[in-house]
Design a protein that fits this description.
The structure is a homotetramer of 361-residue chains. Chain A is of the alpha+beta class and 361 residues long. The first copy, chain A, is built from eight helices and 18 strands. A five-stranded antiparallel beta sheet of chain A has the order 1-2-3-7-4, covered by helices on one side. The first copy, chain A, has a five-stranded antiparallel beta sheet with strand order 9-8-10-16-11. A two-stranded antiparallel sheet of chain A has the order 5-6. The two termini of chain A are 27 Å apart. At the A-B interface, strand 1, helix 2, helix 6, strand 11 and helix 7 of A face strand 1, helix 2, helix 6, strand 11 and helix 7 of B. Strand 11 of chain C pairs antiparallel with strand 11 of chain D.
């Protein structure tokens, strides 16, 4: 992963900050002749868009994507990829200059304000600049293209924990995910979250969450034994999402507590090939996919934009307090769900092409 | 991270498998005129070497490193780097053809046997081939070079959990790490682990662990806001270590349970600059180092080479049982401690050079 | 150089084809706090724009660049780079669907029509798609950013040969380059070219050319001894320009005819340091800049869009004839002059940052 | 191309200098199950080895290659690639410390002595260090592996010009290449070169040369329209060879002198598909292979190690003279022939895998 490019064969380069003219990405290396329209991409973008319930920020961003290049109509009149770079752009429609005078010289605790300035000697105080969660729209757009590259793989994600409250896995129902504002697969827990998060929101506080991504239909053989491990690339991709502080595969940190005989997934022969009797591995052994579902989980910290005053310093070094007024996400983990899907889709598309390049002969 | 190369400016390419002639790495992009001898590297390698206590595999691998290129004597007679590729080689002295007939056609549960063959159509059954933990010697060697690039940064690691048993952080004493065979900073817990792991070892079982890496002296400003995030590269690097199933930074998965006002680290002015009142961020905000200690943790699964028979299949698809006789590591997490240090050192060296390239002007 | 990205620290990713919505590029890794406006970039773009004399294609493309991201006003009110990706977009204003029915199923000799389809299984017949020379606008835009990174280096280019007619180097005057439509530094030869090319143009023919790029002020030390050689990266960058068939450095192919005593540039001490008594090396020895002017030359083939019918086949394999009616460039080498400058500027910016990363310590 | 790595899917990282312990390379991304032995590689190395005639340096370097990793015996007992990194090592057997006292503080004109020190602040005076032509052995070894990846492509090279004396192309006979010490395909010209070069050698002088590489059997479709152009990667690869100052494809610099109707290769239908009536394109149109032979040419400057004293300065800045006593290559272009083949083979192998990755679906 370079500064702003990730992937090797399926490569995504993103650009844009919260208050520039536009944000977007260039997807390079996409195979040709795949059907792709702006509507395909918009579907995924709409799932990520804020302001769809009282549990996400009330900002209104239409997030309409435009395909600038890399597609054309084929002989049958379908718009398809050409194999050349696909540039996607989302204009920032609401970049009016809000009054940032109360925060522009203060470092918000938990935000990148201080580190951004330490790095670049300049700070983009307008909505966090490049560090803004708005940038994740570009990832989701790229992920929609990635899905076209892996049509036989289903990548879905769900929120499985909010604060200390985990879902009951016995209740897991993928259909529920689309029915509640939390992308939660456990209907009962979703109802609990509604009340729980309302309290947090009203208090001007925020809370962390855990998101789980599951990719089904991944063929055995993607990845590499050591450095180009599929899990290594997933870890990088998911950790690169704003506010993520941890990533795990399969049993993850839980594997630290297991004995060898409990952790290793036994094998039997099924009707159509080898089957595993459990999936502690999360679909990846020795960096290479097993053919089981690939399961990754990531922890999202609570947003630091809260109403409670916090101690900080300003650019001159003077000590001061700060609080963040206005719209915010009480649980940014919610909107990270489609973002996690997108990143996993991109990694799998990349590994599919890499594997094919090395091994298709 | 490419198939077998990682880093951008400080780039490491590794090679070798458990039963080849040799393993090693090429370190490219290392700054010139840094003092470097084989002895410097050997010190780190010796910490990783097996067979130093009854708690690690009893294999005897001297793991003597040779510097093949990239150094010369300077005018003062010191051996220094030249700025050109540093090739490091460790010969496999004990590659006699052990009898693998009982496992060469069976897939060991929890090992990469099945996935390796699914990928390459061939399986290196001799000690796991490229998937062998022996490969981590190359990482440790590269890490020793990386330390020369970041002389003001101290990178240390410790085992902080074995099975479900976490250390008592109040007891943390870095000096203890060198005094017990577990790299454990909590003297009391190390004594407990000795008994605990002896039982596991005698039962032919194995157990997972959690390792924590702490880098002190990291200047503020390393990393990037989004894709070249310092934490993203750390996640990739640590997840690429054999048997690792999870990575977290700072509060990590614990951050999911926190409210915003508890998670964000407040700031005050200290004598020599800004100070943070806590370090939930693990020294990284918005992908960029804060100047606090960088803190990463990773979970290591229990080795799957155990004495209990497990159900599996063989290459012909027939169902069978397998057990792994002979020497093994009851807790591979122990030897992962110096490996984790090495990977973090490499990532920090790379980011220091990248930062300097973009921002030193 | 990846499919559509080049550079390591100063990285450029381009997108767009002749008949898409827009073309442009993302410049990643640019240092922060460099003054940069759209006007700065437009100046270079305007030099490349077609339709400015009767010697270039009469298409009208305003080629107005927009900066989509990566800049903001600093405290002094100047627009500066932020260190994050700079996305540049040029909209295709004139993408009306011209009638391509006479050529859409035929492969134009000397064009990429046949190879494009052989590769992607689809052909973008609308103006050549990604292979269109229009794409070079993105390079020129990136080059304008690169110039900001290397303010002490002057990169200039000139047309030094058209067909078999070379300039007289004794007449070289950089000021002339801006005064004639050929970017020719030899006033007398420019007058000759005007007549010569008029004949070619009226005959519906075309002619090749050679362009020379000279970079002055390059500090000694950029590049690397072997694979990251400065000349190797220049060769790649210049050969990647449409229609280029050859690249040489310094004495170039002429060096093949020289004896060692004539080719090696002798050294003396000057007032401010070492000086070379000649520059057969073209400012690069062993892949590393010497401090002399870096001199590169590239050959541009004649455009294949000509009025003379040529034998070819169509997509069905039937033999046929083709001729290209309408506007064309009788000597595409002319407009390659600012493109060559841009590519050299990008390579030098990249190597400056890479050198600083490895060696600034 | 990174500092010391080139290729994307088929990636080669080289290491080593003339007076280190060893030199070699790591080949990453090679497909599995390809037969590969040290003998296969040695055949190519032996063609490059010095001391085989009076026309190359009289140094004796056995250049025996060892395969350190990445191969194993398959079920049929053949040694094959495993898909993991192939490390190749050539030990420097004759690294005795020759007396360099007369040149170690002087910069040899035409050599990298001055630039090396300007870059790294240290100079490897022992045989040129990393800049030594000895490094090309690693390229040849990598090229031998590359050939296994492209078994249907024949890559051959020949010396086509020495000093101002070009071969007569009417006499081209590939069989001649192995019969004379110049790799010259024109028997009559080879006889002329023998006398011509003997004079140069006896005078302690040296002369430049041009080498042509021809790859037959390249399928149409390798490359990309713009930045990942096949010719762009060839230019980079060939220009990275020591002493190369120019690269051209097909008609090359000659294309600058042609009219459009002469340069564009017309097409007809042959028995097995499209045929071209000429090959000015050198097998590449729009960056993508046409299916014709790929033809590249590169110019090699005369070595600067000559017996005539030349003016130079020393490290203290004092003006002085220098001459290079002892063994040298009167025409280093000769030994560049197998090196050119190797680089082209590596580029083609890389592009084959990249193409397959993107387009095999």
């Amino acid at each position: 992963m370079s500064f702003n490019t990730f992937g090797h064969m399926f490569r995504v380069t993103t650009f844009g900050e919260s208050h520039g003219v536009a944000l977007g990405c260039v997807v390079d290396g996409c195979p040709p002749r795949l059907p792709l329209t702006a509507e395909d991409i918009q579907l995924d973008l709409d799932r990520r868009r804020p302001g769809q319930s009282r549990f996400t920020t009330q900002r209104q961003e239409p997030d309409q994507v435009k395909i600038l290049s890399g597609v054309m109509d084929d002989a049958a009149g379908r718009q398809v990829t050409t194999g050349t770079p696909i540039a996607l752009m989302i204009e920032n429609t609401d970049q009016r200059s809000k009054d940032y005078s109360d925060i522009k010289d203060k470092y918000r605790p938990g935000h990148a304000d201080f580190t951004y300035e330490a790095k670049y000697g300049i700070r983009d105080y307008r909505g966090g600049g490049r560090s803004s969660a708005r940038e994740t729209a570009a990832r989701v757009a790229a992920g929609a293209v990635a899905r076209k590259v892996i049509p036989d793989i289903t990548v879905r994600a769900a929120l499985v924990q909010m604060g200390p409250h985990k879902i009951d896995r016995a209740n897991w129902d993928w259909a529920e995910v689309a029915r509640n504002p939390f992308f939660c697969p456990d209907k009962a827990k979703a109802e609990f979250y509604a009340e729980y998060l309302d309290d947090i929101r009203k208090n001007g506080s925020s809370i962390g969450a855990v998101v789980e991504v599951v990719a089904e239909g991944v063929p055995a053989g993607l990845g590499a034994p050591i450095y180009g491990k599929l899990d290594s690339d997933l870890a990088s991709a998911l950790m690169s999402i704003n506010a993520v502080k941890g990533v795990e595969i399969g049993a993850g940190f839980g594997a630290a507590e297991l004995h060898g005989e409990d952790n290793a997934d036994e094998m039997r022969m099924g009707n159509t090939g080898p089957v595993f009797l459990s999936n502690h591995a999360g679909g990846i052994l020795g960096g290479i996919s097993t053919g089981q579902a690939v399961v990754a989980r990531f922890a999202v910290k609570p947003t630091s934009s809260i109403l409670t005053p916090r101690r900080t310093i300003d650019r001159s070094g003077a000590e001061t307090d700060i609080l963040t007024k206005g719209r915010h996400d009480p649980c940014v983990g919610i909107r990270a769900v489609p973002v996690g899907e997108a990143m996993v889709a991109c990694v799998l598309a990349d590994h599919l092409l890499r594997h094919r390049g090395q091994n298709a002969g």
